Amino acid sequence: MRTLRILALVTAGFAYALIVLGAVVRITGSGMGCGDDWPLCNGRWIPSLDDLPTLIEWSHRLAAAGVSALVMALAATALLKRREPGVAGRGGTLRPALLAALLLVVQVLLGAVTVWLELPAPVVTVHLATALGLLAAVVVVAIRASQPMGPPPSMAAARGTAAALVMTAFAVLLGGLTASTHAGFACQGFPLCSGRLWPSVESGLAEIQWVHRLAAYALLLHLIGLAARFRKRGESPVAQRLAWIALAAAVVQVVVAVVMVLWFLPAEWRALHAAFGTAVWVAVVWLGARVFPWAAGRVWPRDA
User: Second label for 41, Cα 20 to 30 Å away, from 52, 82, 132, 196?
Assistant: First the structure.
């Protein structure tokens, strides 16, 4: 299990970095840096890297190949160790590892379709959603391989965490859609959108950005309440700590967003915004993997 845990943690780290690099591709408009060729780049396996968009997109593809190798290695290792305790069966590491491999296949195909169709925003967003799901599956492998201990969580904790997962996914995916459509430039100022409580409906881009902001505000308030309720109800120390980590990441995310908007969306701050948004997702998934018995691979006494 130690090998699986280490491999899962390494894979999760690289998958996180790949999602952030994908955000850099969107932010810099480098998605067509290799043209509409796939898996080739501008008709070559090793393209000329004279221009920045090609360098960024090619780096993203190389990183994706590395993460693919890690995910497949994780699935293969789980298969090889399936006879060991805690690997196969209910609550084992095998199923989420195989799920990660399946999501990887879908992700690769979506990446190809995205390039062939020349980056339609809906497909790019689905591509991001699959990447988030893959990262979550790998995190669950790491949690199950660590054999978490502690008292069972309350049903209220599970419900609150489930809501946080849905809200985080919604906010992050809207952020990806905002970047893909460059909607951030249609909604300036903070905390209002170009000085309005609700933007005009001329292009629809301001609405995308504004709904993304509202989703982020709602998530922040929910995480504040979740962390406070965890402490009040005396949830496990691990769950409390993870709830506060998720809240801290969300606070930093909002601060970065404020600076980014007030400075008229510099690319560096947009990339940092994407990095902390993904970090919030990881923290909430990690919390969910500790709170939900089925995710942790643990049968609590009341479920026995």
Answer: 132
